[in-house]
């Protein structure tokens, strides 16, 4: 028995590696999240560099604050934390990976109108491999997402293929050279929907997003999570400090001391480039870009 997904939706996710579910998040919750975004923007006013809570656009100035990411927003906002733990998010996740679910990380990516930064093609799995691949990300669409404002794009079916090379010049660059891999970006599918929709994409699916050059904001919260019996492989970029810290990430169900081992492809995301930080900074080590970058 499933909680919210149909058999057809589960089969589509297993085959294609993604889903869009419209109208999952109520309007009052979206309104509170938008108020929080306004608060974060005021926090960024006067900042001269990114810190451990807010990642700034390259075009940011203290007088004209521009945020590209709020880091771990569930630790900075009650409404973001409450939504993470609600059935709006967890019910479809349980339908896909089972009742025992653990958090990987959270992020609020902000592509503001006219300058929102691109994210190069990558697989989340390249950053954090596990013993099995019941690993996914839920995207909470805060603004109507259209082809014009830089939607998340996925290459369907790539979650069933290899983990691709995300290294450049000997360093982990967190991005894939599509041409070198023989992949055509024309095959990508944009994950679009009205505000309040959620997207779900498999941790191994290849995805990215272009600059937002439109007049509409494109802001999205990503809740990344995995089955509780998926244990981290040493070398991943968010390796837990202890078992206690790992178990503190449980969102629902029961933790375990028995990792489930699956035959999954793995590359270790090391060594990091000399200049590391968020994915935006790591991807600067990439030579060839698929998307335009901010000037």
UniProtKB/TrEMBL annotation:
| MF-aspect GO terms | dioxygenase activity
SUPFAM superfamilies from the entry?
Answer: Clavaminate synthase-like (SSF51197)
Q: Which InterPro entries match?
A: Phytyl_CoA_dOase-like (IPR008775)
Q: Which domain of life is it from?
A: Bacteria
Q: Name one Pfam family in it.
A: PhyH
Which of UniProt's keywords are assigned here? Dioxygenase, Oxidoreductase
Q: What is this protein called?
A: Phytanoyl-CoA dioxygenase family protein
Q: Which organism is it from?
A: Psychromarinibacter halotolerans
């Amino acid at each position: 028995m499933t909680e919210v997904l149909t058999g057809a939706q589960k089969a589509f996710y297993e085959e294609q590696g993604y889903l869009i579910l419209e109208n999952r998040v109520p309007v009052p919750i979206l309104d509170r999240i938008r108020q929080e975004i306004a608060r974060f923007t005021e926090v960024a006013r006067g900042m001269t560099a990114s810190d451990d809570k807010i990642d700034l656009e390259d075009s940011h100035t203290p007088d004209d604050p521009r945020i590209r990411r709020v880091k771990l927003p569930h630790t900075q906002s009650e409404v973001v934390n409450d939504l993470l733990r609600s059935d709006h998010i967890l019910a479809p996740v349980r339908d896909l990976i089972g009742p025992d679910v653990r958090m990987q990380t959270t992020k609020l990516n902000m592509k503001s109108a006219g300058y929102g930064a691109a994210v190069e093609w990558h697989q989340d799995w390249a950053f954090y491999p596990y013993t099995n691949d019941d690993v996914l990300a839920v995207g909470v669409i805060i603004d109507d997402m259209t082809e014009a404002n830089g939607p998340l794009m996925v290459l369907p079916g790539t979650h069933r293929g290899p983990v691709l090379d995300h290294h450049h010049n000997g360093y982990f660059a967190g991005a894939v050279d599509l041409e070198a891999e023989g992949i055509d970006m024309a095959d990508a599918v944009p994950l679009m929907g009205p505000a309040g929709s959620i997207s779900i994409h498999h941790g191994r699916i290849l995805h990215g997003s272009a600059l937002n050059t439109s007049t509409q904001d494109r802001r999205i919260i990503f809740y990344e999570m995995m089955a509780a019996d998926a244990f981290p492989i040493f070398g991943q970029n968010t390796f837990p400090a202890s078992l206690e810290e790992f178990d503190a990430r449980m969102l629902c169900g029961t933790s375990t001391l028995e990792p489930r081992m699956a035959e999954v492809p793995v590359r270790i995301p090391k060594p990091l480039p000399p200049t590391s930080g968020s994915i935006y900074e790591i991807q600067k080590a990439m030579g060839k870009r698929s998307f335009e970058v901010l000037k």
